[in-house]
Design goal:
Elements lengths: L1 E3 L3 E11 L8 E3 L3 E14 L5 E3 L11 E4 L8 E3 L3 E3 L7 E4 L13 E3 L14 E5 L3 E4 L11 E4 L3 E4 L13
Parallel strand pairs: 1-3, 2-4, 4-6, 4-7, 5-8, 6-9, 7-10, 9-11, 10-12, 11-13, 12-14
């Protein structure tokens, strides 16, 4: 089992295709943690590409913690194939996208979310996805769905919508 906790980030290259859980060969989050591309591009697909819910999918990023994508020493593109969802009601689910300040080339120093960014839990108008960190997050997947939260707060770095991506029914970006 690969355990990610305390902001821990696995830096590697190639492809990671694993289930989220506590069994042999799985990835398990017990706090903030994630992945970064180092030495070449990295593609990550968890739970066979199923939507992952921050605070809702067992052994994935728990409530009040953040998914960490990228690192200060990453040197290539990280692509996450899953869609992300939140069941937050009164707290802000976080995506911490970390930029390698030594790289200025945005064609390689970025994180691509090939899925969508969704909000299907809670009904609190004051709850937002919180994108922070100094890195670039490109959402390339299908339009997201929203049935509760208010929007996305970009508290650092950049958020880009590419391909068919949109923020669906979100009320705004701050």
């Amino acid at each position: 089992v690969l355990y990610l906790h305390g902001g821990g980030v696995l830096e590697t290259t190639g492809t990671i295709a694993r289930a989220v859980g506590t069994g042999a060969g799985n990835v398990s989050f017990s706090g903030s943690g994630g992945f970064a591309a180092r030495g070449g591009a990295l593609g990550v697909t968890l739970n066979s590409g199923a939507t992952l819910s921050v605070g809702g999918t067992a052994s994935f990023v728990p409530a009040y913690y953040s998914l960490v994508l990228g690192s200060a020493s990453a040197d290539n593109v990280l692509t996450l194939s899953n869609s992300l969802d939140s069941v937050a009601n009164g707290w802000w689910p976080g995506i911490n996208v970390v930029h390698n300040t030594g790289l200025a080339n945005l064609s390689v120093d970025k994180v691509i979310l090939n899925g969508s960014l969704n909000w299907t839990g809670g009904n609190n108008a004051n709850t937002y996805w919180h994108k922070y960190g100094n890195g670039r997050l490109e959402i390339a997947g299908a339009p997201g769905s929203q049935s509760g939260g208010s929007g996305v707060v970009v508290a650092g770095g950049a958020l880009a919508l590419t391909g068919p991506a949109s923020l669906g029914g979100f009320r705004g970006v701050w």
